[in-house]
Amino acid sequence: MKKLCSVVAAVLIMIGALPFRGKVAFCTEGPEISAKAAVLISADTGEIIYERSSSQKLPMASTTKIMTVLLCLESGDLYEEFVVDSDAIKVEGSSMGLREGDIVTKYALCCGMLLPSGNDAANAAAVRIAGSIDAFADMMNDRAREMGLSRTFFVTPSGLEGEGHGSSAYDMAILAREALRNETFREICSKTSIQLEFGNPPYKRWLKNTNKLLTMCDGVYGVKTGFTDEAGRCLVSACERDGMELICVTLNDRNDWEDHSKLYDYGFGCVKKTEVSFPETFELDLAGAAKDKLIVAPGELPFMLTSLGYDPGDIGIRVIAPPFVYAPVSKGEEAAQLEISFRGREVTKIPLYAQEDAEVKKKASPKKKQSKNWLKKLISKVGGFFS
User: Fold this and answer.
1) In whole angstroms, what is the distance from residue 181 CA to residue 124 CA?
2) Quick one: DSSP state of residue 343?
3) What's the whole-number mean pLDDT along residues 131-146?
4) Neighbour-count burial of 213, counting CB atoms closer than 10 A to its CB (0-12 exposed, 13-18 middle, 19+ buried)
5) Is 17's pLDDT higher than 70?
6) Mean of the pLDDT values across residues 104-127?
7) How is residue 270 annotated by DSSP?
8) Across-strand partners of 52?
9) What is the number of H-type helices and E-type strands within the chain?
10) Percentages helix, strand, coil for the chain, rounded to the nearest 5?
11) Phi, psi of 63 (to 5 degrees)
12) Comparing C-alpha atoms, which of 87, 73, 1, 60 is closest to residue 296?
């Protein structure tokens, strides 16, 4: 079968995208917290479980590095060694300890950003990827627009304030949700410490994570701390319990460790695993076979984490397939994908498998064609004789 194209073949249910749901009414009143802005969302759907001023744009300090690390990981060549830019690493604040002439890798810089929150690592990565801090900021803002982060604007890769630099709690939660889909990002941010090799010449050293919540709160596996005088204490975290995952963001919060713990204890009591229902089989247009339709079906029934009071109409599905599936197709072969969405935002994609074989349609041999043509002519002459 030819390579699957990202073309929407059928839209079965489509729900318009909504930015978020306000404070939930299906659960008990949320805990008292000290954050100026906060949000708790389902990592699956992005649905808000708890919020306080979650759409307000505020400075977010070093949680900015979530975007910087994501772009760095997506740029590739993570283990290629290079010498850091001398000017880029001359930056104030937290550091991973880079010095002029140091030999590093992008992977090491990502660790240096997510664990000790190195501003030197963020600048070094930006210059390596985009050639300059300003050019990299443009990349950050382009990616933010792609994600629909309408209240986010980046000026620096580190989070040190620049004019207009800021985001909302909800935008930062959606950014973290996207970043955590990257397995390398998830692996790094979950570590309490890591041993790396860099320097001139490179030598082994340990970096420690500033995120104390990793050892303070049951199930927490990330994500990023932040602090400046203007932003106050900022924290983005993620937590998994009983196969359910929530993401929490607090901005300008003097008591963030305790507030995240309280919000998780509250939030996991307000969510459930919801089975996504849809038709058992789907039909795709088939070309080059004796039949013109191919029956496909999912190999698994997906679940998603929703609030106890979610609206089933918020869940959408669509089949993603090429305009035609070309024979031959073998039974059990992946022929398309089913995209599951929540309020227009993608949750996951699952494969759709052929439920039958579809062989190439056999062409008639030249001799058979000649016989058929001769018979047609004979019937035509006989018909004319009796008319």
Assistant:
1) 24
2) T
3) 98
4) buried
5) no
6) 98
7) S
8) 38
9) 9, 18
10) 30, 30, 40
11) -65, -15
12) 1
Q: Tell whether omega for the bond before 201 is within 30 degrees of 0, i.e. cis.
A: yes
| Rounded-to-integer distance, Cα 64 and Cα 81, Å | 25
The string of pLDDT tens digits covering residues 176-202 is 999 999 999 999 999 999 999 999 999
User: Quick one: pLDDT at residue 160?
Assistant: 92
Assess whether the previous peptide bond of 328 is cis (omega < 30° from 0). yes
| Per-residue pLDDT reduced to its tens digit, 62-87 | 999 999 999 999 999 999 999 999 99
Nearby residues of 169 by Cβ (< 8 Å), 6 or more positions away: 35, 37, 38, 39, 51, 52, 53, 54, 55, 56, 58, 249, 250, 251
Cis peptide before 223 (omega within 30 of 0): yes
Contacts of 381 (CB under 8 A, 6+ apart): none
Nearest of 78, 64, 91 to residue 223 by alpha carbon = 64
Rounded to the nearest 10°, the torsion over CA 51, 54, 59, 62 is: 50
**Domains along the chain with CATH numbers:** 1-17+278-387 (2.60.410.10), 37-269 (3.40.710.10)
What residues form DSSP beta bridges with 336?
Answer: 352
Distance, in Å, from the CA atom of 102 to the CA atom of 99, rounded to the nearest integer, reads: 6
Q: What are phi and psi of 190, to 5 degrees?
A: -85, -5
Question: What's this model's pTM, rounded to 2 decimal places?
Answer: 0.84
Three-state DSSP state, 145:
helix
Interstrand relation of 82-83 and 48-52 (parallel, antiparallel or unpaired): unpaired
177 near 193, Cβ under 8 Å? no
pLDDT at 299: 87
**Rounded Cα gap, residues 214 and 201, in angstroms:** 32
Distance separating alpha carbons of residues 120 and 137, to the nearest angstrom: 15
Q: How far is CA 274 from CA 260, 289, 307, 309, 334, in A?
A: 24, 39, 9, 11, 25
The Cα–Cα gap between 149 and 147 comes to 6
